[in-house]
């Protein structure tokens, strides 16, 4: 089986007429974990939402190729079926739909008609993954994210990741609001997915998550594009020194789009 690839080429994205992402290029292969870091308002969350097809974000140029096929031509559900997963910064609550019903429906939609997962196999797998994430079994029958704390929502996002087994995951600030114990559990869940058939893009403000999930590459995004890349040591330097040294090195002015990005 060929190694899966996710390739972003010359991507430009607008939000309400303001260009946030500008000539963004990145390639991730199966077996790799990449991290994107950068100051507030530089386009990190915009990038994630645009890749998954949020209607607020308008792609004006470029391609996002999953195994050579441009997913920008696909509807949101088709992107998920093709093997993309987005772990959201602010997961939605859905009243009336239990965690287990949501996940079984999502798995069966991905597998296709005639290839649905059996009920017993689904229950065994869900029990196993919930135990791995130290989630109380009662969460299976609770409505999706309803009444969940911030940390519980983030664990639930990783539960969905483990159950759906996508080709590529984009995790948008999955570490925000987590205490150290929850952070370790979430990181262990992501690390358990590492294999040649899975790639991951982690968007984060903080190096602390990368203490537990060692990235193959770290990229710094400013003014909507990658301006610097390196190994895990780059994240450590950013944690210690901030971003001013990169701005000075590249002659970059202070960011002007932070308000639009945060509102997005």
UniProtKB/TrEMBL annotation:
Keywords: ATP-binding, Nucleotide-binding. Residues 6-248 form the ABC transporter domain. CDD domains: ABC_FeS_Assembly. The keyword NADP does not apply. It comes from the Bacteria. Transmembrane segments: none annotated. Belongs to the ABC transporter superfamily. Ycf16 family. NCBIfam families: sufC (TIGR01978). This is Fe-S cluster assembly ATPase SufC. The gene is sufC.
